[in-house]
């Protein structure tokens, strides 16, 4: 699924506004993407690492669009789990 720059910006704004944290895990890939106040790369233990270490020169929307998603966890007091970016965008009311 392709995600646009505008949709990624809207996810960041949505996460900031609700004090949410979104973690995206990828199938067969050891690093994750974290979206809260910023878009960051996480190592397997959940620590923030340099984006270039995890994903090289790829942009965040390229990473989200090209790697196969294993799960998406939204932390907002309670945890919600999704299996696709489409489901996350619908939940955040970014796509209908």
Topology:
Blueprint: H1 5-17, E1 21-26, E2 32-35, E3 39-42, E4 48-49, H2 51-55, H3 60-66, E5 69-76, E6 78-82, H4 85-91
Overview of the molecule:
With 96 residues, this protein is α+β, with helices and mostly antiparallel strands. The protein is 33% helix and 30% strand. The chain has one domain. It has a 6-stranded antiparallel sheet. The longest helix has 13 residues, at 5-17. The model has no long low-confidence stretch (mean pLDDT 95).
Number of helices: 4
Distance between the termini: 15 Å
Task: Bin the strand percentage.
Answer: 25-35%
Strand order of the largest sheet: 4-3-2-1-5-6
Number of E-type strands = 6
Please outline the major beta sheet.
Answer: 6 strands, antiparallel
Brief digest:
The protein has helices at 5-17, 51-55, 60-66, 85-91, and strands at 21-26, 32-35, 39-42, 48-49, 69-76, 78-82.
């Amino acid at each position: 699924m392709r995600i646009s720059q505008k949709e990624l910006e809207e996810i960041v704004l949505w996460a900031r506004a609700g004090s949410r944290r979104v973690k995206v895990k990828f199938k067969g890939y050891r690093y994750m993407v974290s979206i809260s106040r910023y878009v960051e790369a996480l190592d397997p233990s959940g620590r923030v690492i340099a984006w270039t270490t995890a994903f090289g020169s790829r942009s965040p929307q390229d990473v989200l669009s090209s790697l196969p998603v294993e799960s998406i966890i939204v932390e907002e007091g309670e945890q919600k789990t999704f299996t696709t970016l489409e489901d996350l965008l619908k939940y955040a009311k970014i796509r209908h």
